[in-house]
Specification:
Blueprint: H1 4-11, H2 21-46, E1 51-55, E2 61-63, H3 64-77, E3 83-88, E4 95-96, E5 106-114, E6 125-133, E7 149-155, E8 159-164, E9 169-175, E10 180-185, E11 196-198, H4 209-219, E12 230-231, H5 237-247, E13 250-253, E14 264-265, H6 266-279, E15 283-285, E16 302-303, E17 305-308, H7 310-320
Parallel strand pairs: 3-5, 11-12, 11-13
Antiparallel strand pairs: 1-2, 3-4, 5-6, 6-7, 7-8, 8-9, 9-10, 13-17, 14-16, 15-17
């Protein structure tokens, strides 16, 4: 059995400078993820369920475990000395790491607890991360194609971690007795087409005509193209994208007529997940452009997201190209 620690150590040679910094960053992400997994297991017994009296930068009510997950990741890097900035959905401004004293070379982006509306019903949740190297001018907002590494943790029946550093996608499963992640799938490849699609169809009245027609296409019966597709939607982005990664298919969170920029965040949701899916042979798109080529303007910028099997994403792009 290959441990995640060993795997990360071997992958660090793929980094531009070949140092141990990648090893250190990934291990601290793993440490934060383990703490979140434990907090979720104990939440019903420790009074950690429910919401706080604050909202995040996107106007969403912050749950107690949202705030706790954010604390875990911030604490993981406070004495690292190599990460200069931690950027999170739960913090309006990037958090400067004091121990780096301006000399840190990296910025780490997080959605600390994705799908937190699922907390009270014991449904899947996740964490998403993205690692960027700062340029000589300290610029940390870079397109997804420049990510050092990205991935996610999925907290469900088991806890898994999926990541890529640009050389394939690898999945690890946490052994709770050993307290270590072990390799459970190497060089994951997404099927070129799937049999399911994932979208909140309750929002369809907000979509454009072409977006609605694209979704109807996947519902229509046509045996020659493997349709109809089945609808699968958990309300947790990580869980839905992981299903697509493993089994193929499509995840959509489109823009709306009144809000064309969509809801999902580029830097810590769309870009890292697209990096993972594209390394596995799929596509991540807004419907009109690749997620990986977008130059971000703000840390919390939003984009539409069409992600999954290459052929399925291309179908949606053809519908939206008519707009």
């Amino acid at each position: 059995m290959v441990s995640l620690t060993r795997h990360i150590f071997e992958q660090q040679c793929l980094q531009p400078d070949g140092t141990e910094e990648f090893f250190t960053i990934m291990n601290r992400i793993v440490s934060g993820g383990k703490r979140i997994a434990r907090a979720l297991r104990e939440a019903g017994l420790t009074g950690s369920l429910g919401v706080t009296d604050t909202k995040n930068v996107h106007g969403e009510q912050v749950q107690y475990l949202d705030a706790r997950a954010n604390e875990f990741f911030v604490e993981a890097f406070q004495d690292s000395g190599i990460v200069q900035l931690v950027v999170s959905e739960e913090m309006e401004e990037p958090f400067p790491v004091a121990a780096a004293k301006g000399a840190g070379k990296y910025a780490v982006f997080f959605d600390p607890l994705d799908g937190s509306s699922n907390i009270d019903v014991n449904a899947p949740l996740g964490s998403i991360f993205s690692i960027h190297c700062l340029d000589p001018n300290g610029r940390f907002l870079k397109p997804g194609c420049e990510q050092v590494a990205a991935g996610y943790l999925l907290y469900g029946a088991g806890t898994i971690l999926v990541y890529t550093c640009g050389a394939g996608v690898h999945q690890f499963t946490l052994d709770p007795m050993a307290g270590e992640f072990f390799l459970s799938a190497s060089n994951v490849q997404i099927p070129s087409r799937g049999k399911t699609y994932s979208v909140n169809e309750g929002n369809s009245y907000k979509w454009s005509k072409d977006m609605n027609e694209a979704v109807v296409y996947f519902r229509n019966d046509d045996k020659a193209t493997g349709r109809p597709y089945s609808l699968r939607y958990t309300g947790c982005l990580v869980a839905d994208v992981h299903r697509v990664l493993v089994k193929g298919g499509l995840y959509l969170y489109p823009g709306e007529v009144q809000k064309p920029e969509g809801k999902l965040r580029l830097m810590y949701e769309a870009a890292p997940l697209s990096f993972v899916v594209e390394q596995a042979g799929g596509l991540g798109s807004t419907g009109v452009e690749r997620i990986s080529t977008i130059h971000p303007k703000t840390p919390h910028q939003c984009v539409p997201l069409i992600i999954g099997s290459r052929e399925d994403v291309e179908v949606v792009e053809r519908f939206l190209s008519r707009e």
